[in-house]
Structures are given as C-alpha cells and as structure tokens.
Design goal:
globular
C-alpha cells in the first residue's frame, strides 16, 4: 500500500509563535494560488474489488478508536465490525477495518478523502490487506456499501466518495468490462450478497485452474 505520508498533516509544530505565523501566512498564500483538488483514485469495478479483497463481510460498526501504528509514524482510525455474514476471508465474529488519519492525545492527522464509518452503521465491506497487517476499505472507500431501508426492505447504497474517481487507460471506452459501483445502488441486500457470492465462487474457481 502506498504510504499515506503525502496526504497527512498534524497539528503539533516545533516553530516558535512568530515563525509559525509567517509560515502559516505563506501556506495560505500558496493555497490561494492553487486550484481546488481532491484525491484521484482509479475507478474499480466490483469484479476488481472482489479480486483484490482479503475479506468481504456484512455487519454493523460496533466501536471506533484511533492509535499510532507500530512504528509511531502515522495515526490510524480503527472500526470494529460485528460480522453477520462472511462472504470471503476467514470467518470471525468481528473484523477491524483501519483507515489512515485520526486524533491521538491532541495530535491530529488528516488524510485527504479517507473513508469513515459511524457506530451503528450497517455495511457490506470489501477490504484489502495492507503491508502493515491492517485491512482497509477497497479502492479508497469504493468497497464500502451502506445498508438502508426502502419500503421495509434492506437495500444497498453506494455512498458518495471524498475522492475523485478516474478511469484507468482503456477502461472508459469499455463500459461493459465489469459491474460499476453506481449500478449497485438500490439493489436489495439479498440480491447484492448473492451476486457477491456467485462472483467470489466463480473467480476463485478460475484462479485455481
């Protein structure tokens, strides 16, 4: 996984107050001269996320906390998910999804467009493994699907992303190459899970040949 260092900012600063004011003014002038931007992320199909995922689960967010990583370089926010159904990966009662950024003892680290979760939120998550042993939402948040209600039935919602999605070379010209995330919005939860299971089973079978 690419290091999140290029996206983070912390509140702690070693400059004295006068130099900090000058530095702050310089940053404001620089930002004023730059166009607004957001994190650019390759657009992924459901098939691509299934292939990349270490786990695919349906459950509810139980709790959240922030902590430094083992090397004390970056702050991560962790979300414990109470698992109702495991479609890919090792079955467990809970799984922890970790996203860069958060606050520890007054030190803030903000990661541009990092996905987040709310306690009590029901979700289906496709998660990828990181180099440091954490699991992250696939595709910078594209692997998060919220579960909502419509006429008393549970449906899938593909919430908006803070990141800007861009097509990979050749992908934009071939819209039939896979299942788009947007096309899944409004699908019933049961249909979505059945689609995921079938996709995981068929792609696992192809990979074992």
């Amino acid at each position: 996984m690419r290091s999140p260092s290029r996206f983070w900012s912390a509140t702690r600063c070693s400059l004295d107050p006068s130099r900090r004011r000058v530095a702050g003014l310089a940053v404001l002038l620089l930002l004023a001269a730059l166009p607004a931007w957001s994190t650019l992320v390759p657009r992924l199909t459901l098939e691509q996320m299934v292939d990349e995922a270490a786990s695919v689960v349906h459950g509810k967010v139980l709790r959240t906390w922030s902590a430094w990583d083992g090397a004390h370089q970056f702050i991560w926010t962790h979300y414990e998910i109470g698992v109702a159904d495991t479609m890919k990966g090792t079955s467990a009662t809970t799984v922890t999804i970790s996203e860069p950024g958060g606050e520890v003892n007054g030190v803030h680290m903000t990661i541009s467009s990092a996905p987040s979760y709310l306690v009590g939120e029901e979700v289906v998550i496709l998660a990828t493994a990181t180099e440091i042993g954490f699991q992250r939402t696939a595709g910078w948040g594209q692997g998060k699907f919220a579960v909502g209600l419509a006429n008393g039935n549970k449906i899938i919602r593909a919430p908006g992303l803070g990141a800007e999605l861009v097509d990979l070379p050749g992908q934009g010209a071939n819209k039939s190459a896979g299942t788009s995330r947007k096309s899944l919005d409004g699908l019933s939860l049961n249909e979505f899970k059945a689609q995921l299971r079938g996709m995981i089973q068929s792609r696992t079978a192809k990979g074992s040949r």
